[in-house]
Design brief:
The protein has 2 domains: about 30 residues; about 140 residues, Sulfite Oxidase, Chain A, domain 2, CATH 3.90.420. A hairpin with a 5-residue loop joins β1 and β2. About 25% of the residues are buried. The N and C termini lie far apart (about 60 Å). It is of the alpha+beta class. Helices cover about 20% and strands about 35% of the residues. It binds the ligand Nc1nc2c(c(=O)[nH]1)N[C@H]1C(S)=C(S)[C@@H](COP(=O)(O)O)O[C@H]1N2 and molybdenum atom. The site of molybdenum atom has 3 residues, from loops. InterPro entries: OxRdtase_Mopterin-bd_dom, OxRdtase_Mopterin-bd_sf. It holds the Pfam family Oxidored_molyb.
């Protein structure tokens, strides 16, 4: 005989299965329509699709997104975005003791908690700095399923891990 308790367990199980199916089929996180630029900077601001045009967007071609497994996940024929370096320069990094430059890093965070880091030295003293972009168009179209803003690093050999979908913040931080 079915007790209320059993019915409750069955309901809970079916809800969980539906939820898991949804996640597996869609695999999408919450979409953020803006990116907060924050942390150790003079001028905190938010980037959205209306304001990003003022940060001198660039169009570049041909970037493959390759997972650590070796699988090519995506082939971008073109993308439009703004350089992370330009975003940081317009925010103005606060660095009272330049000898501590090596302790500074930029954390790029997404709505699902996915996070990647760039050392300050990597952005300003290494070719990598010329290849990190916050993009909002892929193949001439606005980004849809991966959120509104995606961060890419075209200088990585394996480009998947630092390809951040659903970007919600860019934060300048410093090790203790
Ligand atoms: N926010 C977020 N970005 C992410 C991930 C993630 O789980 N969350 N996965 C990464 C991984 S492991 C890869 S290989 C690339 C490409 O994944 P895609 O094929 O789902 O676009 O996105 C990366 N970006
Ligand atoms: Mo991956």
């Amino acid at each position: 005989m079915l007790s209320f308790h059993n019915l409750f367990i069955m309901k809970l199980a079916s809800t969980t299965v539906l939820l898991l199916l949804h996640l597996i089929c869609h695999g999408q996180a919450e979409i953020s329509d803006q990116v907060a630029v924050k942390g150790l900077i003079e001028r905190p601001f938010t980037i959205n699709l209306k304001t990003i045009g003022s940060l001198q967007p660039e169009v570049h071609n041909n970037l493959n997104i390759v997972c650590s497994s070796g699988e090519t996940k995506k082939e971008l024929r073109s993308f439009r975005g703004v350089a992370l370096k330009r975003i940081l320069d317009s925010a103005g990094i606060v660095m009272p003791r330049p000898k501590e430059r090596g302790k500074y890093y930029i954390a790029v965070r997404a709505t699902d908690g996915y996070t990647t880091l760039y050392a300050w030295n990597e952005i300003y003293n290494n070719p990598t700095g010329n290849h990190v972009f916050l993009i909002y168009e892929e193949n001439g179209q606005p980004i849809r399923e991966d959120g509104r803003f995606v961060m890419i690093c075209g200088n990585d050999v394996v480009t998947g891990p630092r390809h951040v979908k659903w970007v919600s913040s860019i934060s300048v931080e410093k090790l203790p």
